[in-house]
Specification:
- By secondary structure, the chain is of the alpha/beta class.
- Helices cover 35% and strands 30% of the residues.
- Strands 1, 2, 3, 4, 7, 12 and 13 form a seven-stranded mixed sheet that branches. Strands 5-6 form a two-stranded antiparallel ribbon. A two-stranded antiparallel sheet has the order 8-9.
- Strand 5 and strand 6 form a beta hairpin.
- Helix 2 crosses helix 9.
- 41% of the residues are buried.
- It comes from Pseudoduganella aquatica.
- This is Transporter substrate-binding domain-containing protein.
Length: 243
């Protein structure tokens, strides 16, 4: 690390928000996932010290917008947030090489819902398709397909209960959540439609205020994420952080 960067970042705390909803394999509210490990290591490599706070997702977004936290882990919807946070960009779009990993979303239905998904069109849904509250990347994908949608529940488990009670014909939730639920007897009557509905890169983003005040730390953190993800040590460690 160069002396100037060390001086700029040394002993400086970087407050970073993590959702209170599990987002396997990236973040968890009660233990360290892949993204938390990557960010902790990368921020320290940049000469600063990360401090994670756990909040509801919408409060994470509101807090970074207001400058109350310095950044947020796992942000995906570039178009929704680009005006008030800094993404690592290349040619005007988020640089996938600097992401924390991918988040995979799937459609879950009842066996007799009549809903089908071929990767291009979601057919047969006569009621809105629901998804966890505040997940803009899923809302944008559904809007792009002109599919009525609603974010009527905070947690994926609530959506599964609503689906089983036939309040919805289909919901979109994280694949890791869906597979965990379908392994339980209670939800064995439900099914995951293939292929995946959405595979989205997730990023560490910084508030505009923090990025303007600490550009060297921000850039060094993103570059460290790239370096760490390319190491053999990371390849071996990542599976153990996925649950």
């Amino acid at each position: 690390m160069c002396a100037a960067l060390a001086a700029a970042g040394a002993d400086a705390a970087v407050t970073l928000c993590v959702s209170d909803r599990p987002a396997a394999p990236l973040t968890f509210p009660d233990h360290e996932g892949q993204a938390q490990y990557l960010v902790r290591s990368a921020v320290r490599a940049a000469g600063a010290e990360p401090q994670f706070v756990v909040l509801p997702w919408r409060r994470c977004i509101e807090s970074v917008k207001a400058g109350q936290v310095d950044g947020v882990l796992g942000v995906q919807a570039f178009q929704a947030y680009r005006d008030f946070v800094r993404f690592p960009l290349k040619n005007g779009v988020p640089d996938r090489a600097l992401s924390l990993g991918v988040d995979t979303w799937v459609v879950v239905t009842t066996a007799d819902s009549g809903v089908s998904w071929d990767g291009k069109a979601l057919l047969g849904a006569n009621s809105p398709v629901s998804y966890p509250a505040g997940v803009n990347v899923v809302r944008q994908a559904l809007d792009a397909l002109a599919i009525r949608n609603a974010d009527s529940a905070k947690m994926a488990l609530q959506l599964m209960h609503m689906l089983k009670a036939e309040r919805y014909q289909a919901v979109v939730i994280r694949e890791s959540d869906a597979r965990g639920f379908l392994a339980q007897d209670e939800f064995k009557s439900l099914r995951i439609l293939a292929p995946s509905f959405l595979v989205s890169d997730a990023y560490l983003v910084f508030s505009n205020e923090y990025a303007q005040s600490n550009p060297a730390v921000v850039q060094a953190t993103w570059e460290a994420i790239r370096r760490i993800r390319a190491t053999r040590e990371w390849m071996e460690l990542a599976p153990s952080l996925a649950k």
